[in-house]
Design brief:
By secondary structure, this protein is an alpha+beta fold. An eight-stranded mixed beta sheet has the order 19-26-25-21-22-23-24-20. The chain has a six-stranded mixed beta sheet with strand order 1-2-3-6-4-5. Strands 10-9-8-7-11-12 form a six-stranded antiparallel beta sheet. Among the domains are: about 5-155, ATP-grasp fold, A domain (Dna Ligase, domain 1); about 160-260, ATP-grasp fold, B domain (D-amino Acid Aminotransferase, Chain A, domain 1, 2-Layer Sandwich), CATH 3.30.470.20; about 265-410 and about 710-750, no CATH class; about 760-870, Phosphohistidine domain (Glucose Oxidase, domain 1, 3-Layer(bba) Sandwich), CATH 3.50.30.10. Helix 1 links the parallel strand 2 (about 15) and strand 3.
Length: about 850
């Protein structure tokens, strides 16, 4: 039985099925490509006459192993014309997050005969089992048995012009332009890279051409129709679309063949540099208006927490520590508890930022968080902060750890006189009262609360580990996220801020005491009297570090040493089950990273990698910084007490507290990461339910919360795609560690490789289709068979950095995602190679004369200059 569903008596738009067809169009089992055609038709777009074979035909073919003659007869009875196009329409292609471009077979120019139609259908169905599809499924972690295949059968329209409308440009996407790529004749030449084609970019609002490449083959009427269609398409589909069209030779009618969501964008490094400079200018101007001073933007120690500031993790960090427009952050709350003046919420919102997706801190605002409550903001800023900024401009390295000494910590009378003039004693007393209260009240009270805090956080963590996100309603996940963020901000992060501040302050005070004491009495430490200048300071810093490491942290302030237990797991001295009992999980704690370790095998592999990376530095650290022996330590304290009894107890107090707080800082960091792990559990569940995969990590925290309350997630997926593309583009730029001059060249394109002798290389100009960095060994393939044979040969030889060089790339090429770079003689942004490059982030340059290359040549891409640099390997 073949069931038929007709959409129109005038136009042949039919669904064939071997089973009863449901009335609800959302349940038609015909694939995403066919569904989009139905939607185009229902929205009054001109499409070809079409017959859809639903999944039941595919399932029957798999059972039977052949195409029954009855099917062919029924299809041919609909008389679609002399020549057909047979298109795949799988359930996994052309979705909002995967296009699977070129994975499944489409057969054009099929003569409308029984034999040819039968073979075309078989080709489409068999493409599901092709190696290219199996490789893609494996990479996307999609079970092969879940793939279903629908078929679209259409008359092949003789085209005057074929092309694609991008309702958002695929390169440097903006919200105010449409991009159209086209060529004369059938579009398969454009897709296969036989032709490079032509393009125009239209302004969305007016339809005017803002950019043109190649010849203008479209009439004004054609352009106006395409512009109006693009506007309507984006509104109808609620997502940026990649729309295939032809202009029929017979009547100049625009016919739409398919539409699919754009699943991959790209930003060029030049565009990123431009955008980041605009952002920097805004930051500088805002600071200058507020403070009369341009900021210093430093990577300081925040870059250690976020070497790669993926949007979700970094925005959660900002929400917790800096706060929001309505909620104070942990930094303001924690430092206020210690006696520092709080900042306004709008100031703290600008404390942390990214430049080229690298974590940065605005040191003007950071400096203001060290203001004592007794000192007015204007006084503090005009006298002290400007002084800090001047010092850091002279020596940018001081911006790395300003808390260790650039910021004013414990000024003596002379330093107060330098800053405050006749009010020196008053301000000196402010600092003395602050330290007296710190030592007599704040620190003892805080240390007394630490054991209870560690115990209660462990209880909270263990209790929440029982929470299973998979078993609750979708709307309840947001409530749980809010609970964790609030708990982090008001409890764990506040404790972390206080501990970190006291750790830095204590360490600074120890070094300051030692420096001043040894200047007065160099014989306190053997050998100090022989040192001068920079060596002298380094010696004192080194000795103070030894003093700090000699302190023993009380047991009440300790938590299990994760690194020690990891070593035991690696050495098989501890089972993973025992590790789980202690820590509750084996996964990565840092949700800023998209790839998460969730099973024991990967966990052990990860631990081994950690061990390999850390072993050498650990050994080096032990050699360079041996802990003070008890004998050395006691000898020092006897000398110091004899020399200056007034400072003896004070220094000993700071050494003891620095030793405790340095250890507590690491302990509290782990306590914070425990709760972040709970957040990660919910994020993992959300990405599963929303089918977002790693895209969810490219949303900002506020976008994620908005999405959880929205009726549709489409616009958020689009934003995540753009965020991810921008993030990837930022990898191609370098940013200065410390930025203090807006006019300087702070951001520049990375040099992928330093060529010592350029005379050994040749340079060829081309056209960059997809930007990025690549270098590797040339593989020339002039047809798919050549490619399939050579790629296996290269892999067998262990060559992995492969640059593919082709005349053009037609759809029958597969496994191109293994390449590090693509070069073609023909092809443009519409070519199949361009789609593969965008979706797999592979640098691609076209319009290259490939007859100059041979297999084995060493090739370097310089996509920012549209150049290929190559060296002969004769």
């Amino acid at each position: 039985m073949i069931d038929v569903k007709s959409f129109s008596s005038q136009k042949k738009l039919l669904i064939f099925s071997l089973e009863p067809i449901p009335e609800n169009e959302e349940n038609y089992a015909i694939g995403n490509k066919a569904h989009s055609l139905i939607k185009l038709y229902c929205k009054s777009y001109e499409i070809p006459d079409s017959i859809f074979l639903d999944y039941s035909f595919f399932q029957a073919y798999r059972r039977l192993g052949n195409i029954p003659h009855e099917w062919i007869v029924r299809i041919l009875s609909k008389n679609l014309g002399e020549t057909l196009a047979i298109r795949s329409s799988a359930n996994i292609e052309d979705s909002q997050h995967m296009s699977f471009a070129g994975a499944f077979t489409t057969v054009l120019y099929v003569p409308n005969t029984e034999k040819n139609l039968e073979q075309a259908l078989i080709d489409c169905y068999q493409s599901v089992d092709k190696q290219r599809v199996q490789d893609l499924l494996a990479r996307k972690n999609i079970p092969a048995e879940t793939v279903q295949m629908g078929i679209i059968i259409q008359p092949l329209i003789e085209a005057r012009i074929s092309g694609i409308i991008f309702t958002t440009p695929p390169v440097n996407p903006t919200d105010d332009q449409y991009h159209i790529e086209y060529c004369p004749g059938c579009g398969d030449k454009l897709m296969g890279g036989i032709l490079t084609g032509h393009s125009i970019t239209l302004e969305k609002e007016s339809g005017k051409i803002v950019r043109q490449n190649g010849s203008l083959l479209l009439t004004r009427s054609n352009m106006n129709q395409l512009w109006q269609a693009a506007t309507k398409l984006e509104a109808d589909f609620h997502f940026a679309q990649d729309v295939e069209f032809v202009i029929a030779k017979a009547d100049n009618q625009i016919v739409f063949l398919q539409t699919r969501p754009i699943t991959a964008f790209q930003y060029t490094s030049a565009y990123v540099i431009q955008q980041e400079n605009v952002k920097l200018r805004d930051i500088f101007e805002k600071n200058f208006q507020r403070y009369g001073e341009t900021p210093i933007i430093s990577h300081n120690n925040i870059c250690e927490l976020f070497p790669i500031a993926i949007p979700l993790g970094y925005s959660i960090f900002k929400t917790i520590f800096a706060g929001t427009n309505t909620e104070s952050g942990a930094i303001s709350m924690g430092r206020s508890q210690l006696g520092y003046a709080p900042l306004r919420k709008n100031e703290l919102a600008d404390l942390f930022l990214t430049v080229g997706n690298q974590a940065r801190m605005n040191l003007i605002i950071d400096a203001l968080t060290f203001r004592l409550k007794d000192i007015k903001e204007d006084t503090y800023f005009n006298l002290l902060v400007k002084y800090y900024l001047q010092r850091m401009r002279k020596d940018p390295s001081q911006a790395n750890y300003p808390e260790y000494g650039v910021y004013l910590q414990n000024p003596d009378v002379q330093l107060c006189k330098t800053f405050f003039g006749s009010n020196d004693k008053q301000y000196f007393n402010y600092f003395q009262r602050f330290f007296q209260k710190l030592k007599s009240e704040n620190v003892p009270r805080f240390l007394e609360s630490v054991p209870d805090f560690l115990k209660s956080n462990e209880q909270f963590y263990r209790q929440e580990l029982l929470f299973d996100p998979a078993k609750v309603k979708f709307e309840d996940l947001r409530l749980k996220l809010d609970e964790y963020i609030t708990y982090l901000r008001n409890n764990v992060a506040v404790k972390y801020v206080i501990i970190a501040r006291l750790a830095y302050l204590s360490a600074f005070m120890v070094k300051e005491h030692l420096l001043k004491s040894i200047e007065s009495n160099p014989f306190l430490i053997d050998g100090a009297e022989k040192l001068t200048g920079e060596n002298y300071t380094q010696f004192v810093n080194h000795y103070s570090n030894l003093l700090l490491t000699s302190m023993v942290c009380p047991e009440d302030y300790k938590m299990p040493d994760q690194s020690e237990y990891e070593r035991q797991v690696i050495k098989q001295e501890m089972t993973i089950e025992a590790f789980l009992k202690i820590f509750g999980h084996v996964g990565s704690l840092d949700i800023s990273q998209p790839r998460l370790i969730e099973n024991s095998k990967d966990f052990v592999r990860g631990l081994i990698q950690i061990r390999e990376l850390k072993d050498a530095p650990d050994q080096q650290q032990k050699i360079m910084n041996p802990a003070l022996s008890a004998k050395e330590s006691n000898a020092f304290w006897r000398r110091y007490k004899k020399w200056d009894r007034t400072q003896f107890e004070d220094l000993k107090w700071w050494v003891e507290k620095a030793g405790i707080f340095m250890i507590l800082r690491e302990t509290c960091k782990f306590e914070l990461l425990k709760i972040i792990y709970l957040i990660k559990k919910i994020v993992t569940e959300l990405q599963t339910r929303l089918d977002f995969a790693d895209l969810i990590y490219y949303l900002n925290w506020d976008e994620l919360l908005q999405m959880l309350e929205a009726d549709s997630f489409v616009e958020f997926r689009f934003e995540a795609l753009k965020h991810k593309a921008y993030f990837e583009a930022c990898k191609s730029i370098e940013v200065e560690k410390v930025i203090f001059d807006l006019m300087a060249d702070n951001i520049k394109t990375k040099q992928s490789i330093i060529i010592e002798n350029i005379q050994d290389y040749n340079i060829m100009d081309g056209n960059t289709i997809h930007h990025g960095e690549a270098e590797g060994v040339c593989l020339i393939a002039r047809n798919p068979q050549d490619w399939h044979h050579k790629i296996m040969e290269y892999k067998q030889k262990g060559i992995n950095n492969i640059i593919g060089v082709f005349p053009g790339v037609e759809l029958s090429y597969y496994n191109l995602s293994v390449l590090k770079g693509i070069l073609t003689e023909n092809g443009g942004a519409l070519a199949h190679a361009a789609t593969i490059a965008r979706e797999h982030n592979i640098p691609y340059i076209s319009n290259i004369k490939i007859d100059r290359f041979k297999d084995g040549y060493f090739i370097i891409f310089d996509t920012s200059k549209h150049q290929v640099i190559y060296r002969r390997q004769d």
